[in-house]
Design a protein that fits this description.
This protein has 238 residues and is α/β, with parallel strands linked by helices. It has a single domain, classed as Rossmann fold (3-Layer(aba) Sandwich), CATH 3.40.50. Helices cover 23% and strands 21% of the residues. It is globular. It binds guanosine-5'-triphosphate. Residues 35-41, 55, 57-58, 83-85, 141-142, 144-145, 171-173 line the site of guanosine-5'-triphosphate. This is small monomeric GTPase.
């Protein structure tokens, strides 16, 4: 006797062939900081696994994506590599901040001016209504250039603490160099830390696709509620 299809006993409308596959969640992470700090190199390093041979100043924004698995769930990390130069940002800037899930602030450890610019980047986030529930991290890049360091760890840590952000120091060029004190790929670990943080928050609600647009990739998301649990640090001022 033929075995019955186990799904048939529930009498529901779905069969195996009609159950929609689970949608892949997308985490939109914007990467901001002065021109030349290494935003393109860091995002490329994470998504392509290597240091780019050549980069040019970003105009507007570049997108890089990587599909990762966290606790058995496939998640697309979408990195928005934004232009550091003001003249290349103007027309795009409002798009950067729409539906952002996390922000990565980058400075160059060999360029103190890029560190002094951080309050202006934080202010820009504020002006675009980015709430304190959106996780932020601070990354000091180019740690392979040990002889040229202008921003010490203590100074950076002080700033990070004051703004309730975790601090990471790394190098897009040689993330495993002695200067970075890490054995595994540190750049990968940094972005994965952000992704784990986002996954541990309340579930993202995917916006409804308009009828008839199924099959397109126009998925956007937002994080539901709970403004208190999302800040990384514990200072009350952020
Ligand atoms: N030594 C070293 N050089 C780096 C590192 N990361 C980036 N660079 C170099 O710094 C320069 C600028 O890097 P980009 O990634 O293009 O900088 P960006 O922040 O994207 O610049 P904009 O697109 O103008 O905003 C390039 O010459 C890179 O090769 C690093 O970790 N170590």
């Amino acid at each position: 006797m033929a075995e019955r299809d186990p799904s048939a006993q529930f009498g529901g409308p779905f069969t195996n062939s009609t159950i929609p596959p689970p949608r892949t969640r997308i985490f939109k992470i914007i990467v901001i900081g002065d021109s030349g700090v290494g935003k393109t190199c860091l995002t490329y390093r994470f998504c392509a696994g290597k240091f780019p041979e050549k980069t040019e100043a970003t105009i507007g924004v570049d997108f890089r994506e990587k599909l990762v698995e966290i606790d058995g769930e496939s998640i697309k990390i979408q990195l928005w590599d934004t232009a550091g130069q003001e003249r290349f940002r103007k027309s795009m800037v409002q798009h950067y901040y729409r539906n952002v899930h996390a922000v990565v602030f980058i400075y160059d450890v060999t360029n103190h001016a890029s560190f002094r610019s951080l309050p202006a980047w934080i202010e820009e986030c504020k002006q675009h209504a980015l709430g304190s529930e959106v996780p932020r991290i601070l990354v000091g890049n180019k740690c392979d250039l040990q002889d040229s360091v202008q921003v010490g760890t203590d100074e950076a840590q002080h700033f990070a603490d004051a703004h309730c952000m975790p601090l990471f120091e790394t190098s897009a060029k040689s993330p495993n160099s002695p200067g970075t004190h890490h054995n595994s790929d540190h750049v990968e670990a940094i972005f994965m830390t952000v992704a784990h943080k986002l996954k541990s928050q309340k579930p993202l609600v995917l916006s409804q696709l308009p009828k008839g647009s199924e099959g397109t990739t126009a998925l956007t998301g937002r994080i539901e509620g709970d403004n208190t649990a999302a800040t990384w640090g514990s200072c009350g001022s952020c």
